[in-house]
Amino acid sequence: MQNGFRVGLFYTCLVDLMRPEIGFAALKLLEASRCEVVVPESQTCCGQPAYNSGDRHVARELAEKFVREFESFDYVVIPSGSCGGMVRAHYLDLLSDDPQWRARMESLAQRVYELTDFLHTVVKFRQSPNAGAGGFQGTVTYHDSCSGLRELGVQQQPRALLRQMPGVRLTEMKDCRNCCGFGGTFAVKYGEISAAIADEKCTNIHASGAQAVVLGDLGCMLHIEGRLRRTGDDKTRVLHVAQVLAGEG
Question: pTM above the 0.90 mark?
Fold first, then answer.
């Protein structure tokens, strides 16, 4: 039985190209929440790389495209704090000179949610007693991605959901709200600084004693995992929160 919500899933470029299993985990969670889920096949990028690089023309084209593709849904759910932040926090800036486009985006922005925020706040997701069967079992620590935390207010939502998971114990690392050093093009332009920030994050992950670090943004996930592996850690797992919640970690 469905709850009546027709949800558009924006799965993001990185998920599509690098870790499609995260998109399938998000889909599984939304369907378990009794939503009718639609994944528009024409979706592409949210425009964040162009926007951060100063190409407002391309970013605006992608913003308009996003609005056309998703404005008919009751809600739009995104398994990424950075892409969700781009849509909610920056599209209005890109469309500010056109009253009609801005009005359409203002209406849509109220219905755009990061995945864990939607699960916790809108559908009040509750795990079944056997939710963790076959999935990750052990201690996790949570990394707060910058955009999700500061642009969308995502902090307690993923933690509340993780605490429902049988067999999963959450422990906080030092400076869990600090940047991992990725920052999109920042990691390319300022590689040494980016690596130093990542090293500090990895040190805090190790000090927490957790077997896995869990997070809600694939950019941070790839950055942290890459640094852990390059510095010799092949044991600490790096998991998207959707994977853990869906029992696929």
Answer: yes
